């Protein structure tokens, strides 16, 4: 891991340890296993010609504060109105200023499936995710060992959470290949240098098995970015900062959802 990722992962492990002192692993597991209505995440993407996973995002280490006063419920409603296929909610508190309360508020406000975007490093967080009512969870291949990735994918499935497995390069793809995840996110941003290359997802998608639902993440700002990915066969996108900063996120989403792959 890069210094940035290592710093975050170390911090998150400390947060999880503190959380376990407030609510035990056993109690959190019971909460996660309680009956709940689950909204199909992958299916929501596949049903759209252009599927945008619109993100509730307050801040990031690379961009700083984006909108600390963001109303998660109101933002979710705008995204739904604009035609988003699903929501992503950042819940990491220190570096991204998010929370599980944002996730709960966003999901309650709309009928869309919701992804918890977090640095998942402990099974406890998967129980947290289920207990909070999420429909899907992000698993970052770069920060997990081979065995952790397999165990976390299996546990997520048990909890009726769909896993969006994030990769960045060929080494990550080799790591996830034995588990054949149906949902793979390709991050266009190098979390070591913060450089973004919006051609990365298109190049790497060819290394994934046919039938994989591929999500391009990071750096999606313009209609041309959507069109460029469509021309490589990618039709699902995770977008945060551009939508949060947009003066008219509803209009922007509507325009993207009507893009075709022709120049």
TrEMBL record:
Swiss-Prot/TrEMBL keywords: Amino-acid biosynthesis, Aromatic amino acid biosynthesis, Decarboxylase, Lyase, Tryptophan biosynthesis
Keyword Acyltransferase: no
Pathway(s) per entry: Amino-acid biosynthesis; L-tryptophan biosynthesis; L-tryptophan from chorismate: step 4/5
CDD domains from the UniProt entry: IGPS
Amino-acid biosynthesis recorded as keyword: yes
MF terms in GO: indole-3-glycerol-phosphate synthase activity; phosphoribosylanthranilate isomerase activity
InterPro entries: Aldolase_TIM, Indole-3-glycerol_P_synth, Indole-3-glycerol_P_synth_dom, Indole-3-GlycerolPSynthase_CS, RibuloseP-bd_barrel
Residue ranges constituting the Indole-3-glycerol phosphate synthase domain according to the UniProt record: 5-249
Catalysed reactions, semicolon-separated: 1-(2-carboxyphenylamino)-1-deoxy-D-ribulose 5-phosphate + H(+) = (1S,2R)-1-C-(indol-3-yl)glycerol 3-phosphate + CO2 + H2O
Superkingdom of the source species: Bacteria
A Gene Ontology BP annotation from the UniProt entry: L-tryptophan biosynthetic process
EC number: 4.1.1.48
Homology family: Belongs to the TrpC family.
Entry-linked PANTHER family: INDOLE-3-GLYCEROL-PHOSPHATE SYNTHASE, TRYPTOPHAN BIOSYNTHESIS PROTEIN
Annotated HAMAP family: IGPS_B
The protein's name in its UniProt record: Indole-3-glycerol phosphate synthase
Protein's organism: Desulfoluna butyratoxydans
Encoding gene, per UniProt annotation: trpC
